[in-house]
Amino acid sequence: MRSIDALVGLLIRPNAVLLLIVVVFLLIRSLKLASGCGAVYAMLRVLYRADFQYRCGGSSKWRSLHDYKVCKVVITGGSSGLGRSLVEEILRGFPDVVVFNIDIKASPQPNDRLIDFRCDLRSSEMLEQTLKLIKQSGGNDIRLIVNNAGIRSRYEGLKDVRGQDLEDVFAVNSRAPLRVIQELTPEEGSEEQCFIVNVSSSLGILSAAKVGAYAASKAALIAFHKSYAFELESKRVSNIRTLLVVPGQLDTDMFSGFDPPRQFFAPVLSKERLAAKILQHVDKGIRGDLTSPLYAKFAYLLMAMPYSVQSIARRLSRIDECLPDDN
Ligand SMILES: NC(=O)c1ccc[n+]([C@@H]2O[C@H](COP(=O)([O-])OP(=O)(O)OC[C@H]3O[C@@H](n4cnc5c(N)ncnc54)[C@H](OP(=O)(O)O)[C@@H]3O)[C@@H](O)[C@H]2O)c1
Fold first, then answer.
1. Which residue in the list 72, 155, 210, 214 is annotated as catalytic?
2. Torsional class of 84: left (φ above 0), alpha (ψ -120 to 50), beta (otherwise)
3. Sequence spans of domains, the chain
4. pLDDT digits (tens, 9 = 90+) for 36-46
């Protein structure tokens, strides 16, 4: 078994669950606990379904990107990594969609439905100019915004973090997503629907040693996202939906160059698979959080534990020792 995620994935398949229930039932029948287990399982299923329905629900029916004749998607950082996988999947799966890609470099392959907006997100002037250009080229039809671009800070101790690096990492990872949302989302409560995806990181919750600046910028994005998502909820706005993506390590260049520890518990994610999962959420209008792999779902729980427990868990996971030095 490659990872605990794969093991759990196998176990929660309906047949495996049924088999497990039968085995457990037979084992503990004599203790008359089987019906209790069944009831707990049924209750968990009901809660899961109710949560799913809530996340998909809203005052108006959510329209898939397939339902539009003209439709635009704005993505940042779509020229490589996870962003590129998303762009490829969108171009392949949605033939009427035009993608606006905001990236510092051009897309690796031209496509009639892919328009590059070359922009260094570290520069607020360039970003403002790009947002103006996008609005002029049909800002009304934007049905999906993916704030994906990110940069990591150097692997270094907190005392070595330079002011300019800190500004850059916050500009790309936290300020740019906020400005894109402020400028490109439709009017709240209007007929125009728009789905917003913000790509953060599990490091934004479990900040590891030597990546303090990156982790802080991703934590800021989580805070912006949550504040906005629940602002929309409190105003009963349903034409704008939001999804927070909190991935662990991806198979891209950003965190390559070292051996990720404890891969059974913290497997490296495939960018193509994550892209496909994100687009499933977009298509059905499923808002909320998309956190993967499994350990990342328990990150908040770990951070709420007593300091000593956190310390032991971190030592066992080797999260604070695995990164090399960039200096
Ligand atoms: N990789 C991971 O393990 C991991 C884990 C959790 C979360 N994430 C997050 O997931 C997202 C995607 O990560 P990824 O691994 O796919 O990253 P990636 O492979 O480095 O791709 C990011 C894209 O953004 C572009 N970009 C970088 N700096 C930019 C700037 N200043 N202005 C405009 N575009 C810029 C990059 O261009 P260049 O290639 O020219 O730099 C690249 O095309 C990021 O937000 C990242 O923080 C990644």
1. 214
2. alpha
3. 2-52, 65-243+271-289
4. 777 888 889 99
